[in-house]
Structure formats: structure tokens, C-alpha cells
Amino acid sequence: MAALGWLTPRKRSATARSVLAGEAAAEAGLKSSQEIDGVGTAPAGTAEPLVPDFPVIGDARAAAFFDLDNTVMQGAAIFHFGRGLYKRKFFQRRELARFAWQQAWFRLAGVEDPQHMQDARDSALSIVKGHRVSELMSIGEEIYDEYMADRIWPGTRTLAQAHLDAGQQVWLVTAAPVETATIIARRLGLTGALGTVAESIGGVYTGKLVGEPLHGPAKAEAVRALAVAEDFDLARCAAYSDSHNDIPMLSLVGHPYAINPDSKLRKHAKDREWRLRDYRTGRKAAKVGIPAAAGVGALAGGTAAAVALHRRRR
Predict the structure, then answer these.
(1) Would you tell me which of 88, 153, 170, 215 could form a disulfide with 175, CB atoms 3.0–4.6 Å apart?
(2) What is the pLDDT of residues 57-89, one digit of tens each?
(3) Is residue 242 among the annotated active site residues?
């Protein structure tokens, strides 16, 4: 599908679009967090307790920011969401095969391919154009139960819970749609979510974005904007991610963590003596940053789905 134009003019710099995306994400995140507040926290799960040497209990000016894909959850949220939309006949088999291949590649490589992610976002925008936000939120709740709930990393979940137990806010920061991210944050008992903001008028999606996807520098801008709004001291905050694309966000805080890191982030983190956590299994995963057993399973499943669809079309 053809890429859709930005809400802002193309002549504006990438930095300006990143700032716009970040500010929009912070505004949407604060609004959605008011809905999350009071719902209650989800059970921490059955993972063995993992008590980090941080956070500081009672430090309300500190907060934690967690990337979503492959940090909190195995795989990419937007691909799981696409799978759920296909099940509900939002699009045809051709798009499903593409989603399956992109998800398989993501799980095998353990890193984000910008073109794959852009293609997935453009497809998602085209698919939801004309649909009501409330409709997609309701469907998103079902998709979480079907495809995402069992893919939360217990180790990362425990880290997030440690911040909550210390009385601190915990935010997801992701390129996934803010609506999807908000559902995941609510289900995990987190404070809220910063995500890519799709334009809507009268509660109906227009097929455009506000600024650009919340990716790379835009994530840092969203965290910066939220810190101003909530009076956080970034030097006392923590950030967690698996991807070198999130180095701008990680560098913004005083306590950066590399979680299930790709090779570039692993090297960067070691050079700067950042804390590392790897919750994947297998020697190969620990060595080169590839999701081992889970990744191979996703690759096999995704590739098999794509091949099956290809054979049916033939």
C-alpha cells in the first residue's frame, strides 16, 4: 500500500516532526492514564522475584520508561494487532502473509527493520481509516487476550512492578499505536503509555499520523515532554529497551537498562557500563542477541503461515 502523508508538512525537519510526535504522545498518554488510574494493578505473575539495586522507594520525582517490543513483550505489538484484525476480516490474506513474514524476521533478527516497521504502520493506518477509535479500542482488548497476554516477559514485568511498589510511575514508550499501548499498560497495571498518535476527527481515524511514528528520537522527546508535565527529575528516572534505536531515550535518564539487547545496544551499554538484563534462553541469544527458542518458534510459525497462504493463492 502506498505510504500516507504526514499531518505536518514534509518541509519541516525530522527533528521538528519528532518533537511534534513526542508532545502528541505525552498529551495522549496523560489523557489515557487518567482512565487507567484507579483500575488497579495486575498480578505480578509467577516469575521468581528479581530485586534490582534500584529504584529508590518513595522517590516520586523518579519514573520508569519501558520500550514495549521485545523488551516487555516478545515480538512486535503492531504485528500481533494486525493478526487480530485479519481474524476479524479487516483485510485480506495478502496483507496477512506480509505481516507474518515481517514478524518472523523481527523475531529472528531481534532488531527492528525501519522499512518493515514503516510498511506495517502504513498498512495499519490504511486498514483503520474510517473506523471509530472506540471500535478499535474494544477490539484491541480482545486481541490482547488472544495474542499478547502470554508474550509478556516475566523478568521485565517484575522490574516494572518494582518501580510501582516503590511508589513511582511506570510508562510504556513505544512506536505502537497509543491505543494499543494503553490497553497493554492498563492490563499490566502500569501508569500509562506513550505511543504513536493517529489523527482522528470526531472519533474516526483519518489515516494520518500526528507528527511521525514514536520511534528513535521521538521517544526521547515524548519522555522529555512528560517529565516536564509530571515534574520528573530525569537524572533520577530509569529507561529500559532492547534496541539501539532507543539510545536517545536511554541516554536521557540517569538509570538506563539494556533489556534483551540487540548487538549494537549491547556494545553501547557495555562501553558505558549500563546495566544489562537478558531474559531470553539459549547461548546463542546471550551471545548475539537473537531470541532463541521463542524466536525460532515464531519464525517457524510465521513462515509456515506465509507459505501456506502462498500455496492457497497458487
Answers:
(1) 215
(2) 999 999 999 999 999 999 889 888 888 888 888
(3) no
- CA proximity to 171, closest of 229, 223, 228, 115: 223
Q: Side chain identity at 110, as an amino acid letter? A: G
Closest CA to 121 of 211, 184, 181, 196: 196
The catalytic position among 37, 53, 59, 67 is 67
pLDDT at 126: 73
Interacting residues of 17 by C-beta distance below 8 A, sequence separation 6+? 6, 8, 211, 212, 218
CA distances from 217 to 149, 206, 295 (A): 28, 25, 27
Reported as a pLDDT band with limits 50, 70 and 90, residue 266 is: very high
Cβ 72 vs Cβ 232: under 8 Å: no
Contact predicate 96/302, CB 8 Å: no
- CB–CB of 97/310 below 8 Å? yes
**Residue 37 annotated in active site:** no
The sheet that has 255-259: what strands, in order across it? 192-196, 169-177, 63-66, 238-241, 255-259, 275-277
Selected catalytic residue, list 53, 69, 165, 271: 69
Q: 233-265: per-residue pLDDT in tens?
A: 999 999 999 999 999 999 999 999 999 999 999
